[in-house]
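pinging the channel bc i need a second pair of eyes. not urgent but kinda urgent?? the chain im working w is below, pasted from the shared doc
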Amino acid sequence: MNLPWWVPAAGAGDLRAATPLAARAFGEELVLWRAAEGAAPSAFVDRCPHRGARLSRGRVEAGQLECAYHGWRFEAGGRCVAIPALSALPDFTPPATHRACAWQALEAHGLVWVAQAPAAGSAPLPIHLLDPIDGAPMLPSRRVLCGPFDVATSAPRVVENFLDTAHFGFVHEGFLGSREQLAVPDYRVLHDALGRPMVPLYRAWQPRASSAAQGGAWVDYSYRLLGPWAALLTKKAEGDMPGEAYALWCCPLDEETTRVWFTICTDDASLADDALRDFQATIFGQDAPVLESQRPKRLPLAAQGEGGELHCAADRLSVAYRRWLAALGATFGTC
Protein backbone atom coordinates (compact mmCIF):
# COMPACT_ATOMS: atom_id res chain seq x y z
CA MET A 1 0.00 0.00 0.00
CA ASN A 2 1.61 3.26 -1.15
CA LEU A 3 0.07 6.30 0.53
CA PRO A 4 1.99 9.41 -0.59
CA TRP A 5 -0.09 11.92 1.41
CA TRP A 6 0.81 13.80 4.55
CA VAL A 7 -1.40 13.35 7.62
CA PRO A 8 -0.97 14.68 11.19
CA ALA A 9 0.03 12.03 13.71
CA ALA A 10 0.59 14.03 16.93
CA GLY A 11 0.88 17.47 18.42
CA ALA A 12 4.43 18.77 18.04
CA GLY A 13 4.50 19.77 21.70
CA ASP A 14 3.72 16.20 22.75
CA LEU A 15 6.91 14.87 21.16
CA ARG A 16 9.81 15.26 23.61
CA ALA A 17 13.41 14.55 22.67
CA ALA A 18 13.99 11.92 25.35
CA THR A 19 10.76 9.94 24.98
CA PRO A 20 9.51 8.12 21.88
CA LEU A 21 5.79 8.61 21.20
CA ALA A 22 3.44 5.90 19.94
CA ALA A 23 1.14 7.02 17.12
CA ARG A 24 -1.05 5.53 14.41
CA ALA A 25 -1.93 6.33 10.80
CA PHE A 26 -3.53 4.35 7.96
CA GLY A 27 -3.93 1.33 10.26
CA GLU A 28 -0.18 1.21 10.97
CA GLU A 29 1.33 1.52 14.46
CA LEU A 30 4.11 4.13 14.39
CA VAL A 31 6.73 5.55 16.71
CA LEU A 32 7.66 9.24 16.57
CA TRP A 33 10.90 10.53 18.06
CA ARG A 34 13.48 13.34 17.98
CA ALA A 35 17.24 12.89 18.01
CA ALA A 36 17.55 16.00 20.21
CA GLU A 37 15.41 18.83 21.55
CA GLY A 38 14.41 21.00 18.59
CA ALA A 39 15.49 18.40 16.03
CA ALA A 40 13.22 17.42 13.16
CA PRO A 41 10.90 14.50 13.98
CA SER A 42 11.45 10.98 12.72
CA ALA A 43 8.80 8.28 12.22
CA PHE A 44 9.24 4.50 12.09
CA VAL A 45 6.83 1.61 11.99
CA ASP A 46 6.57 0.71 15.68
CA ARG A 47 8.30 -2.65 15.34
CA CYS A 48 11.96 -3.48 15.85
CA PRO A 49 13.14 -5.50 12.83
CA HIS A 50 15.13 -7.79 15.16
CA ARG A 51 12.39 -9.46 17.27
CA GLY A 52 9.32 -7.32 16.70
CA ALA A 53 9.23 -5.41 19.99
CA ARG A 54 7.58 -2.00 20.03
CA LEU A 55 10.21 0.68 19.50
CA SER A 56 7.97 3.16 21.34
CA ARG A 57 8.90 1.27 24.54
CA GLY A 58 12.53 2.25 24.04
CA ARG A 59 14.37 5.53 24.55
CA VAL A 60 16.59 7.99 22.73
CA GLU A 61 20.29 7.58 23.44
CA ALA A 62 23.00 9.77 21.85
CA GLY A 63 20.58 10.91 19.16
CA GLN A 64 19.54 7.36 18.25
CA LEU A 65 16.40 5.34 18.97
CA GLU A 66 17.20 2.38 21.21
CA CYS A 67 14.98 -0.72 21.35
CA ALA A 68 14.02 -1.68 24.91
CA TYR A 69 14.40 -5.42 24.21
CA HIS A 70 18.01 -5.93 23.01
CA GLY A 71 19.23 -2.34 22.73
CA TRP A 72 19.58 -2.21 18.97
CA ARG A 73 19.99 1.44 17.98
CA PHE A 74 18.70 3.19 14.88
CA GLU A 75 19.59 6.55 13.37
CA ALA A 76 16.95 8.97 12.07
CA GLY A 77 16.89 7.45 8.57
CA GLY A 78 16.19 3.99 9.99
CA ARG A 79 19.62 2.37 9.64
CA CYS A 80 20.77 0.20 12.53
CA VAL A 81 24.04 1.62 13.90
CA ALA A 82 24.65 -0.52 17.01
CA ILE A 83 23.96 -4.07 18.26
CA PRO A 84 25.19 -4.27 21.88
CA ALA A 85 25.32 -8.10 21.91
CA LEU A 86 28.04 -7.91 19.23
CA SER A 87 29.95 -4.96 20.67
CA ALA A 88 32.94 -7.15 21.54
CA LEU A 89 33.55 -7.97 17.88
CA PRO A 90 36.31 -5.76 16.48
CA ASP A 91 35.28 -3.35 13.74
CA PHE A 92 31.73 -4.77 13.59
CA THR A 93 29.24 -2.63 11.67
CA PRO A 94 25.61 -3.71 11.26
CA PRO A 95 24.89 -4.48 7.60
CA ALA A 96 22.94 -1.96 5.56
CA THR A 97 19.97 -4.35 5.40
CA HIS A 98 19.48 -4.01 9.18
CA ARG A 99 17.06 -1.09 9.34
CA ALA A 100 13.79 0.03 10.83
CA CYS A 101 10.94 0.83 8.44
CA ALA A 102 11.08 4.62 8.21
CA TRP A 103 8.28 6.93 7.11
CA GLN A 104 8.65 10.56 6.12
CA ALA A 105 8.06 13.08 8.91
CA LEU A 106 7.96 16.84 9.26
CA GLU A 107 6.59 19.50 11.57
CA ALA A 108 4.03 22.15 10.54
CA HIS A 109 1.07 24.00 12.12
CA GLY A 110 2.08 22.74 15.58
CA LEU A 111 1.66 19.12 14.42
CA VAL A 112 3.95 16.27 13.47
CA TRP A 113 3.02 15.03 10.00
CA VAL A 114 3.86 11.64 8.50
CA ALA A 115 3.67 10.05 5.08
CA GLN A 116 4.43 6.51 4.12
CA ALA A 117 7.79 6.48 2.30
CA PRO A 118 6.77 6.80 -1.35
CA ALA A 119 7.92 4.54 -4.15
CA ALA A 120 10.85 5.77 -6.23
CA GLY A 121 9.91 8.70 -8.39
CA SER A 122 6.72 9.63 -6.55
CA ALA A 123 6.28 12.64 -4.31
CA PRO A 124 3.77 13.44 -1.58
CA LEU A 125 1.18 16.13 -2.09
CA PRO A 126 2.34 19.35 -0.47
CA ILE A 127 1.04 20.60 2.87
CA HIS A 128 0.00 24.21 2.44
CA LEU A 129 1.40 26.29 5.25
CA LEU A 130 -1.70 28.46 5.53
CA ASP A 131 -0.15 31.22 3.45
CA PRO A 132 -1.99 32.92 0.58
CA ILE A 133 -3.27 30.30 -1.88
CA ASP A 134 -4.06 31.10 -5.51
CA GLY A 135 -3.92 34.83 -4.82
CA ALA A 136 -6.22 34.67 -1.77
CA PRO A 137 -5.62 37.22 1.01
CA MET A 138 -3.26 36.41 3.86
CA LEU A 139 -5.08 34.54 6.60
CA PRO A 140 -5.42 36.07 10.08
CA SER A 141 -2.15 35.89 11.96
CA ARG A 142 -3.28 34.43 15.29
CA ARG A 143 -3.24 30.61 15.16
CA VAL A 144 -4.85 28.38 17.81
CA LEU A 145 -4.58 24.59 17.54
CA CYS A 146 -7.61 22.62 18.76
CA GLY A 147 -7.77 18.91 19.48
CA PRO A 148 -7.19 16.13 19.02
CA PHE A 149 -10.71 14.73 18.74
CA ASP A 150 -11.23 11.03 18.02
CA VAL A 151 -14.33 10.00 16.10
CA ALA A 152 -15.51 6.53 15.06
CA THR A 153 -15.94 7.16 11.35
CA SER A 154 -13.76 7.44 8.27
CA ALA A 155 -11.68 10.52 7.50
CA PRO A 156 -13.59 11.24 4.23
CA ARG A 157 -16.86 11.32 6.21
CA VAL A 158 -15.32 13.93 8.54
CA VAL A 159 -14.08 16.07 5.64
CA GLU A 160 -17.39 15.89 3.79
CA ASN A 161 -19.23 17.01 6.94
CA PHE A 162 -16.84 19.98 7.23
CA LEU A 163 -17.71 20.95 3.64
CA ASP A 164 -21.47 20.50 4.15
CA THR A 165 -23.65 23.51 4.98
CA ALA A 166 -27.16 22.04 4.75
CA HIS A 167 -26.83 20.54 8.24
CA PHE A 168 -26.17 23.87 10.00
CA GLY A 169 -29.79 24.57 11.00
CA PHE A 170 -30.27 21.07 12.42
CA VAL A 171 -26.99 19.94 13.97
CA HIS A 172 -25.74 23.43 14.95
CA GLU A 173 -29.06 25.16 15.64
CA GLY A 174 -28.49 28.37 17.58
CA PHE A 175 -24.81 28.43 16.64
CA LEU A 176 -24.07 28.08 12.93
CA GLY A 177 -27.64 27.80 11.68
CA SER A 178 -31.33 28.39 12.28
CA ARG A 179 -34.47 26.45 11.38
CA GLU A 180 -35.82 29.72 9.96
CA GLN A 181 -32.95 29.83 7.44
CA LEU A 182 -32.58 26.31 6.04
CA ALA A 183 -32.41 27.01 2.31
CA VAL A 184 -28.97 26.52 0.75
CA PRO A 185 -28.25 29.34 -1.70
CA ASP A 186 -26.91 28.66 -5.16
CA TYR A 187 -23.11 28.43 -5.19
CA ARG A 188 -20.35 27.56 -7.65
CA VAL A 189 -17.79 24.78 -7.30
CA LEU A 190 -14.47 25.58 -8.98
CA HIS A 191 -11.14 23.75 -9.03
CA ASP A 192 -7.72 25.16 -8.21
CA ALA A 193 -4.48 24.61 -10.13
CA LEU A 194 -4.02 21.18 -8.48
CA GLY A 195 -7.56 20.12 -9.37
CA ARG A 196 -8.89 20.43 -5.81
CA PRO A 197 -12.55 21.47 -5.45
CA MET A 198 -13.24 24.88 -3.94
CA VAL A 199 -16.17 27.24 -3.37
CA PRO A 200 -15.08 30.89 -3.52
CA LEU A 201 -18.30 32.29 -2.00
CA TYR A 202 -21.10 30.83 0.08
CA ARG A 203 -23.44 33.07 2.10
CA ALA A 204 -25.18 31.85 5.27
CA TRP A 205 -27.18 33.26 8.17
CA GLN A 206 -25.68 32.29 11.53
CA PRO A 207 -27.09 33.02 15.01
CA ARG A 208 -23.59 32.78 16.52
CA ALA A 209 -20.96 32.63 13.83
CA SER A 210 -17.95 32.50 16.16
CA SER A 211 -16.99 32.18 19.81
CA ALA A 212 -16.88 35.99 20.13
CA ALA A 213 -20.14 36.72 18.32
CA GLN A 214 -22.89 38.37 20.37
CA GLY A 215 -25.70 37.99 17.85
CA GLY A 216 -26.71 36.75 14.43
CA ALA A 217 -25.17 37.89 11.17
CA TRP A 218 -24.87 37.04 7.49
CA VAL A 219 -21.52 35.38 6.92
CA ASP A 220 -19.56 34.95 3.69
CA TYR A 221 -17.78 31.59 3.56
CA SER A 222 -15.21 30.14 1.20
CA TYR A 223 -14.15 26.49 1.13
CA ARG A 224 -11.15 24.73 -0.36
CA LEU A 225 -9.65 21.26 -0.13
CA LEU A 226 -6.00 21.24 0.96
CA GLY A 227 -5.55 17.49 0.55
CA PRO A 228 -7.59 14.28 0.61
CA TRP A 229 -8.21 14.62 4.37
CA ALA A 230 -7.65 18.33 4.97
CA ALA A 231 -9.72 21.41 4.19
CA LEU A 232 -9.87 25.13 4.90
CA LEU A 233 -12.82 27.46 5.32
CA THR A 234 -12.65 31.21 5.70
CA LYS A 235 -15.53 33.32 6.96
CA LYS A 236 -16.28 37.02 7.25
CA ALA A 237 -19.40 38.33 8.92
CA GLU A 238 -21.11 41.61 8.11
CA GLY A 239 -20.02 44.62 10.10
CA ASP A 240 -16.84 45.03 12.09
CA MET A 241 -16.40 41.43 13.22
CA PRO A 242 -12.88 40.16 12.46
CA GLY A 243 -12.43 37.54 9.79
CA GLU A 244 -11.66 33.95 10.74
CA ALA A 245 -10.42 30.80 9.09
CA TYR A 246 -10.63 27.20 10.20
CA ALA A 247 -8.32 24.48 8.92
CA LEU A 248 -9.37 20.85 9.35
CA TRP A 249 -6.62 18.25 9.65
CA CYS A 250 -7.61 14.55 9.69
CA CYS A 251 -5.45 11.53 10.45
CA PRO A 252 -7.07 8.27 9.30
CA LEU A 253 -6.15 6.02 12.25
CA ASP A 254 -7.67 3.21 10.23
CA GLU A 255 -10.40 2.89 7.60
CA GLU A 256 -13.20 3.72 10.07
CA THR A 257 -11.56 5.75 12.87
CA THR A 258 -10.20 9.28 12.60
CA ARG A 259 -8.21 11.69 14.76
CA VAL A 260 -9.02 15.34 14.07
CA TRP A 261 -7.33 18.67 14.75
CA PHE A 262 -8.41 22.20 13.82
CA THR A 263 -6.35 25.35 13.44
CA ILE A 264 -8.32 28.54 14.13
CA CYS A 265 -6.89 31.62 12.41
CA THR A 266 -8.25 34.89 13.78
CA ASP A 267 -7.33 38.51 14.42
CA ASP A 268 -9.72 38.66 17.38
CA ALA A 269 -7.76 39.27 20.58
CA SER A 270 -10.79 39.48 22.87
CA LEU A 271 -10.86 35.78 23.82
CA ALA A 272 -8.28 33.50 25.36
CA ASP A 273 -7.04 30.47 23.47
CA ASP A 274 -9.01 28.17 25.76
CA ALA A 275 -12.26 29.97 24.95
CA LEU A 276 -11.64 29.45 21.23
CA ARG A 277 -10.85 25.80 21.85
CA ASP A 278 -14.01 25.37 23.94
CA PHE A 279 -16.17 26.81 21.16
CA GLN A 280 -14.61 24.51 18.57
CA ALA A 281 -15.05 21.54 20.91
CA THR A 282 -18.73 22.44 21.25
CA ILE A 283 -19.22 22.58 17.48
CA PHE A 284 -17.40 19.32 16.81
CA GLY A 285 -19.16 17.74 19.77
CA GLN A 286 -22.43 18.42 17.93
CA ASP A 287 -21.05 16.86 14.72
CA ALA A 288 -19.50 13.74 16.23
CA PRO A 289 -22.66 11.78 17.18
CA VAL A 290 -24.11 12.29 13.70
CA LEU A 291 -20.83 11.28 12.06
CA GLU A 292 -20.65 8.12 14.17
CA SER A 293 -24.25 7.26 13.28
CA GLN A 294 -23.65 7.25 9.50
CA ARG A 295 -23.65 3.91 7.71
CA PRO A 296 -21.53 2.83 6.07
CA LYS A 297 -18.72 4.42 8.05
CA ARG A 298 -16.66 4.57 4.86
CA LEU A 299 -17.62 7.20 2.30
CA PRO A 300 -19.40 5.72 -0.76
CA LEU A 301 -17.84 6.87 -4.03
CA ALA A 302 -20.29 5.16 -6.39
CA ALA A 303 -22.72 7.38 -8.32
CA GLN A 304 -26.25 7.43 -6.93
CA GLY A 305 -27.56 5.47 -9.90
CA GLU A 306 -24.92 2.79 -9.26
CA GLY A 307 -25.76 2.00 -5.64
CA GLY A 308 -24.25 5.12 -4.06
CA GLU A 309 -25.96 7.58 -1.72
CA LEU A 310 -28.56 10.02 -3.02
CA HIS A 311 -27.60 13.63 -3.75
CA CYS A 312 -29.41 16.92 -4.28
CA ALA A 313 -28.29 20.26 -5.71
CA ALA A 314 -27.19 21.43 -2.25
CA ASP A 315 -24.59 18.63 -2.22
CA ARG A 316 -22.58 19.72 -5.24
CA LEU A 317 -19.40 20.37 -3.22
CA SER A 318 -19.69 16.96 -1.55
CA VAL A 319 -20.14 15.31 -4.95
CA ALA A 320 -17.09 17.17 -6.29
CA TYR A 321 -15.07 15.99 -3.28
CA ARG A 322 -16.06 12.36 -3.85
CA ARG A 323 -15.18 12.54 -7.53
CA TRP A 324 -11.83 14.15 -6.74
CA LEU A 325 -10.93 11.43 -4.20
CA ALA A 326 -11.72 8.76 -6.78
CA ALA A 327 -9.68 10.49 -9.50
CA LEU A 328 -6.79 11.01 -7.08
CA GLY A 329 -6.80 7.39 -5.98
CA ALA A 330 -7.10 8.50 -2.34
CA THR A 331 -9.61 5.80 -1.48
CA PHE A 332 -8.55 5.00 2.10
CA GLY A 333 -11.77 5.15 4.15
CA THR A 334 -14.08 4.87 1.13
CA CYS A 335 -16.22 2.12 -0.34
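so The longest helix spans residues 273-293. and The chain is about 15% helix and 30% strand. — does that match what u expected or am i reading it wrong
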